[in-house]
Each structure stands twice: as C-alpha cells, then as structure tokens.
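Our example copied in:
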Amino acid sequence: MRISDEVKDASLSVGRIVKEYGDDKALRSFYLEFWRRALVLELVRKYCPKSSTVIDLGAQPFIISCALKLMNYEVIAYDYDPGRYLGIAKACNVKVVKCDLERDSLDLKDSSVDCAVFSEVLEHINPYYVHHTLTEVNRVLKVGGKLIVTTPNIASLFRRIKLLLGKQPVYRLHVKEYTKDEVEKLLKEYGFRILESFYSEVNDLHFVDAEPHDYLRINGYLDLIRCLFRKPSKVNLLRMLAYPIVKAIPPLRMKVSHPGLSHVERW
C-alpha cells in the first residue's frame, strides 16, 4: 500500500515530539516501526472520514495517537499503563484514559465512535478476555464504524523456522498469536464484517539492523542489500534471503493486516 505524503508528514512531526518528550526506547520504536505505524495511519485515512472520533486502544507510546491528532481526527487513547509516555500524548493534546482492556468497560456511550485502532494489541490479550474486549469495541462503534486491526502472523516464515529448530515461536511478551484465518473468524464472531484482509510485508522489509534514519529510507529489496553491506549482521542476512520468499508467498509474511491488517466494519 502506498503511504501518502500526509501520513509521512504527520509521522515525521511526531518524531520530533518523541525526541523531546520520550526516551531512547520510544525513539527506537519510532524509527523501527515507522512504516508499520504509517500503514495503520493510511488505513485510518482510507476508511475513516476526517474530524471523526478515533479511539486508539493499547496506545502507548502514543505515536499513532499523536499522528492521528495531527491528521485532524478527534482522538481518545486507552492504555493499561499510560504514565511513562504521557508527556508525548499531552504534547499532542491527546486525551488519555487509563484502561485495562481485558476487564474494564470503555467510558463511552453506545454507538459513539467512528473508528477504533487495535494495532499490535490482540496478541497481548488473554484469549479468555477477548470476548469482553471485542464486545466493548463493537458496543461503542457506530453502525458502519470501522475497526482496524494489525497483529503478528503466527504462521510466518520465521515463526515456522523457530518451531522447526525447537524454539518457542511466540514472542515472550505475547499471550497468543494468530493466523489470518483465525483473526477473521474471531472478528466475525463478535459482530464485524471484513472489508479488507491482507498479509503485510512491512516487518519483513523493515525489521533489520540499521541506523535510526536508515529505517525511513528502506523501500524495497535493494535497500535490504544495502543494509547488509553497511551492517553485515545475521539479521540483515536473513532478511535479505527471506524477503523474495515472503514476497512470493504472502502467508509467510510477519504481519496479518486485516493489518498486519484487518479492516472490519460493524454490522
């Protein structure tokens, strides 16, 4: 998916805020996941009208929330532990609500929200509580409101290789990872109709060893080769070798983009 100049400009503006109000961890995340977040923002831009109300669920460190605010959306950010990066959200004038998505109710009226962003959160939710979380999201969305989901693909090439080597394929901070079909089934079960669902190559292309600003210049396979020559690390070598494979076989990509994106619409 092509990323618009509007999304790029908003994202880069947030980078300056992260440098001032964040820390090294947030700044590294800003660069490393720049294009993954840009893809989410582009999906919001595609499906959600300007000036509409967007809730960003599991929002820390509030990079997507801030970019959406700069793109002229009304934003409410929800997070279990917002304190560490609250300065970033305040700098963008984003309203922040402390919320445990597994147990708490969203403090919103029924059918009051136009769009919900659920990016890289599903894999952190205990499957026992997914019912509560998705039911709450459905409750607050307007009829025709949009839910944008991104999550890791448990069936990706690197997850499969890890499993063959006898290693745990699920990232240590994730409770459960899903296949694309599983995410689609889950969303349909809780009242959503899939508008778009695809495997994203964004992590396969950008999760490399690079200097911060180099992440912003990676656009294709030649850039992976350049990364390998600049930093001949094992990660860069594996990315370069694997990319042609995941490019040709989408189900082996790292992100499900129902996200790494799922786009869904409430019935």
